[in-house]
């Protein structure tokens, strides 16, 4: 089994906390909220058998530095590209879930030569048509008001983040060690402020997605994976604008797909990424 090592990598003005394991073609994994790179803890060892797995903490989250600005998906895509540059990787298979899906999508749209294959999970992409049946959850608005959520939640960060972990799983829940690392990562007003800045940048992210898809198509081979609550909404958004798309909805699976149903996710990723190796 490949050893997972943690590194501090300068990229796009950040000090990125990144977990790296294995050797071979690069796989870049982008997490969401309230997660860190450890969302992928059950996925990395298997992928690292024949890939170099790169799993950073997103801008402002986990152990990555917390700038005041730059939480829109376009800047996060630039962060990802700069990290690949710093690690000497010209291209990668890229997977993004939740907050990590939009930057993965924009990286593939803007720099398709850097993305061999793309996996997007449990997210909706701005206001692209197809997701009209998916109602934005209440916390999108709560997080979006500057200064509100971090003030209201002061001293109760663990309870709040823990609630998301509980509703995001349907099987055995989040393993205690991973859960503890998530709760520690989101403790303190500074951590919450950075997390909620991602939501406050949603209007800019939506504008970037509209611009990227205006008259353009996603030409990178793409897989959309849904569970509960997103289901096939992401696949419906992608279908009209993507040249090569496959879609899957994993049954009996919560939002935290890599932790809740790694047994179902790993065959999908392994088969999809193997296709990239065969065409390389």
List keywords for this structure.
8 strands, alpha/beta, 40% helix, 280 residues, 12 helices, Rossmann fold, 8-stranded mixed β-sheet
What does this protein look like?
- The chain has helices at 44-47, 73-86, 101-110, 138-144, 148-152, 157-167, 176-185, 189-200, 202-213, 233-238, 257-260, 262-279; strands at 5-11, 14-21, 26-30, 52-56, 92-97, 115-121, 222-226, 245-249.
- It has one domain: 3-Layer(aba) Sandwich (Rossmann fold), CATH 3.40.50.1820.
- Helix content is 40%, strand content 17%.
- By secondary structure, it is α/β, with parallel strands linked by helices.
- It is globular and about 45 Å long.
- An 8-stranded mixed sheet has the order 1-2-4-3-5-6-7-8, with helices on both faces.
- It is built from 12 helices and 8 strands.
- The mean pLDDT is 95.
- Helix 10 (233-238) links the parallel strand 7 (222-226) and strand 8.
- Helix 3 packs parallel to helix 9 (202-213).
- Pfam families: Abhydrolase_1.
- This is Pimeloyl-ACP methyl ester carboxylesterase.
- Keywords: Hydrolase.
- It comes from Amycolatopsis saalfeldensis.
- GO terms for molecular function: hydrolase activity.
Uncertain spans, ≥5 residues at pLDDT below 50? none
Major sheet size, sense and barrel closure: 8 strands, mixed
Described by the principal axes of the CA atoms, the overall outline is globular
Say which CATH homologous superfamily is assigned.
Alpha/Beta hydrolase fold, catalytic domain
User: How much helicity do the residues have?
Assistant: 40-55%
Protein name: Pimeloyl-ACP methyl ester carboxylesterase
Keywords: Hydrolase
InterPro entries: AB_hydrolase_1, AB_hydrolase_fold, Epox_hydrolase-like
Domain AB hydrolase-1: 25-261
């Amino acid at each position: 089994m490949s050893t997972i090592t943690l590194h501090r990598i300068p990229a796009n003005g950040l000090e990125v906390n990144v977990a790296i394991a294995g050797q071979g073609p690069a796989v870049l994994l982008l997490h969401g909220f309230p997660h860190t790179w450890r969302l992928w803890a059950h996925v990395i060892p298997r992928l690292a058998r024949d890939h170099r797995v790169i799993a950073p903490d997103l801008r402002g989250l986990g152990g990555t530095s917390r700038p005041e600005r730059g939480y829109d998906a376009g800047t996060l895509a630039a962060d990802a590209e700069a990290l690949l540059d710093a690690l000497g990787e010209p291209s990668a298979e890229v997977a993004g879930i939740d907050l990590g899906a939009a930057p993965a999508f924009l990286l593939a749209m803007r720099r398709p030569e850097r993305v061999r294959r793309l996996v997007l999970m449990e997210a909706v992409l701005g206001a692209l048509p197809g997701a009209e049946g998916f109602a934005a959850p209440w916390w999108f608005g709560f997080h979006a008001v500057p200064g509100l959520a971090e003030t209201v939640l002061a001293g109760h960060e663990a309870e709040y983040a823990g609630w998301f972990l509980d509703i995001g799983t349907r099987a055995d829940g989040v393993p205690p060690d991973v859960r503890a690392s998530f709760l520690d990562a989101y403790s303190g007003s500074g951590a919450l402020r950075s997390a909620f800045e991602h939501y406050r940048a949603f209007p800019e992210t939506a504008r970037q997605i509209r611009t990227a898809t205006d008259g353009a198509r996603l030409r990178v081979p793409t897989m959309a994976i849904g569970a509960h609550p997103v289901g096939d909404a992401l696949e419906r958004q992608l279908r009209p604008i993507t040249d090569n798309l496959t879609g899957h909805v994993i049954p009996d699976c919560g939002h935290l797909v890599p932790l809740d149903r790694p047994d179902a996710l790993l065959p999908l990723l392994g088969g999809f990424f193997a296709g990239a190796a065969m065409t390389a």
